[in-house]
Prior knowledge:
TIM Barrel
Amino acid sequence: MPKYDLVFLHAPSVYDFRQRATLWGPISDLVPSTPVFDMYPIGFATLLSHLQRRGFSVRINNLAARMVRSPRFDPERAIANLDARVFAIDLHWLPHAHGALEVARLVKKHHPDTPVIVGGYSASYFHQELVRSSLVDYVLRGDSAEVPLERLLTCLLAGDDTKSVPNLTYLDAQGGLRINPLTEVPADLDHLTLDYYPLVRSVVRDRDLLNYAPFSHWLEYPIMALLTVKGCTRNCTICGGSSFAARSLSARTEPAYRSPERLAEDVRRVGALSRGPIFLLGDLRQAGLDYARRFFRAVQGYQGAVIVEFFWPVERAYMEELAAALPDFIVEFSPESHDPAVRRASGKPYTNAGIEQTIAAALDAGARRFDLFFMIGLSQQTAESALATVDYCRELLTRFDDGRLIPFISPLAPFLDPGSLAYERAAHYGYLRHAATLEDHRQLLLQPTWKQILSYETRWLDRDALVAVTYEAGWRLNRLKREVGLISAEKAAETEARIGQARTLMAEIEGLLARYAGADLQRELLARKARIDAANTSTVCDKSELDVPVGRIPFKVLNLAKIGLGGGKV
């Protein structure tokens, strides 16, 4: 009998990235992942927990993280050696359009009779295209695959028909397209296990930590995420998780929340596992102030670092309640632009006074730090507006000058989210799309620079302008941070050098594109691979600027590291 009933596989963005020379630019500077997006979705943890509680044998293989950590790791060999009755691959965000399908191809090569399931937001959007390929047998649509996956796995292991499995798309025996109704849309999240202990038990069972690590450098920065909600009350234009997108991709007419008391239990249990910060995904106020206050009462006294996000400005009274419950709190707030007109076009109709009020309230209440995120590539955003964002950051850093306010700026890249308003109503919002199908996006990922990879441009910024403005804004903000003492002169110089190198490489690669094609182009690119790879991480800011300092990693995590780091089993 196979060792596992199901194995989850997480692919890198581009499967053979180690054999390619791609100038990814700053597309991952503001997330924990590397440019190949080696962080698997939080759904892997909830799905594994759900299936294990029902008696299935399940594991996770983070192929992307293993490939990043070791050039010797052979993902094809790892896939060939896996012993499973079913494989499941995430295609949650569109940057995995190449890697997910190439991993599916390898599964079919080495396990031709084993079913392949794909799920996630992007899989939900492109479900018909996926099952019509020869690589994917089933797509589970929507944002809640726990019950559908359990039912599908039960059917597959028993050899039963799958026509009653909710949220499922597949081809029947005659090759006809079957789209089962999307009816599994839970009203709350209290049925999920979100404390990571089932994941820990799996690590111990398999004596393998590396494959279960959420991303490649998690051992060095063990941040943990907790899900407060599925769905959203907001309609941010560019967001594939917005209310608009959730309605079409997941048939979700309103958000589903984790009960505040259970969320508080999750915080305490996860806090016992890791000294890294806990990231609460979603604005607690979406469910109402009563919900947030119940959570504050239940979590009162927790001393660990907790990151909270705000989707709109915050009143001082609320911030004080938050600080009383979670004294070591960090804020993330994403106004996207300093320009109110651009912000309104992005679905965020609040004032600059609201932004400043939120910063003041958080810092006065004792926030350890306040991360402020801006973006380039928005509707109605000109080059002048994007660069003026840095001027606004200077005003803020002059007013809030104690080192806790940290602004960031990055491009909206590489793709527009399918299902978002900007994707579905591109012309209305001033976007010109360069990709419509999953295959279109897969081919874009194989282009040599992030400028050619971009799936869009806007009426105000074409691809050339967007890239140029991103580098210039990053350069200016980096100098500003050095000037006010947010980063050291040494760090600033390193970032400035990488921006300069990236600009030089962009021009150099464009010159190659004008002279070479095919194998000749690849040869010339590979000759520059070391330089290109060196410019791909921490381009417009050092990624370490995002990290919250962590204390001693507790004995449980150290013991797991001893178990898993030795063999790195597949």
